[in-house]
């Protein structure tokens, strides 16, 4: 447990320092561990990604939380919640609806955020996308518009 704690704190520090240079705050994240053939503790899965961590920029989510926020406002999400109330174990079998596709503008902005994050984190242009903060403005505007309607 001490080694897991030490590795977690060290990785979290590294991630927090890296994203703070981009103006992001590391709210929380997930680490997965396993033991290799020598019974040494190793990280498994990815570290510091938008799928594993919850980052924010001035309160705006910069992670898969963006999609979660959208989907929580759909009838599909209500179907999921109702199914879980009926049966917490087999709830997936009870949901007959499917999640709707993301609106085109939100989908594009989310893709740009993932790509922009990689560009800024690596300080290399892998993708031709607007700077991360430009895509975040679109996200902020989108959710402001949705709240107002």
Report what the structure shows:
The protein has 149 residues and is α+β, with helices and mostly antiparallel strands. It has a domain at 1-57. Helices cover 52% and strands 14% of the residues. Strands 1-4-5 form a three-stranded antiparallel beta sheet. The chain has a two-stranded antiparallel ribbon with strand order 2-3. The longest helix is centred in the N-terminal third of the chain and has 19 residues, at 2-20.
Short description:
The chain contains six helices and five strands. The model has no long low-confidence stretch (mean pLDDT 92). The protein is α+β, with helices and mostly antiparallel strands and 149 residues long.
Instruction: Look at the helices and sheets and give the structural class.
Output: alpha+beta
Question: Based on DSSP secondary structure assignment, what is the total number of beta strands?
Answer: 5
Give the SSE order as H and E letters.
HEEEEEHHHHH
Low-confidence stretches: none
User: What does the largest sheet look like?
Assistant: 3 strands, antiparallel
Overall 3D shape: flat
Task: List its salient traits.
alpha+beta; two-stranded antiparallel ribbon
List the SSEs and their pairings:
Layout: H1 2-20, E1 25-29, E2 32-35, E3 41-44, E4 53-57, E5 60-62, H2 65-71, H3 75-86, H4 91-94, H5 104-122, H6 132-148
Antiparallel strand pairs: 1-4, 2-3, 4-5
Helix pairs in contact: 5-6
């Amino acid at each position: 447990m001490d080694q897991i704690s030490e590795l977690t704190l060290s990785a979290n520090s590294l991630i927090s320092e890296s994203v703070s240079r981009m103006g992001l705050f590391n709210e929380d994240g997930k680490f997965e561990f396993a033991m290799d053939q020598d019974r040494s503790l190793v990280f498994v899965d990815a570290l510091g990604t938008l799928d594993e961590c919850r980052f924010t920029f001035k309160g705006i989510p910069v992670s898969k939380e963006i999609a979660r926020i959208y989907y929580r406002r759909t009838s599909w999400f209500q179907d999921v919640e109702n199914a879980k109330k009926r049966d917490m174990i087999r709830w997936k079998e009870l949901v007959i609806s499917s999640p709707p596709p993301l609106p085109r503008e939100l989908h594009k902005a989310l893709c740009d955020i993932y790509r922009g994050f990689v560009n800024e984190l690596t300080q290399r242009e892998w993708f031709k996308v607007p700077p991360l903060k430009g895509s975040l403005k679109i996200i902020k505007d989108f959710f402001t518009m949705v709240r107002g309607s």
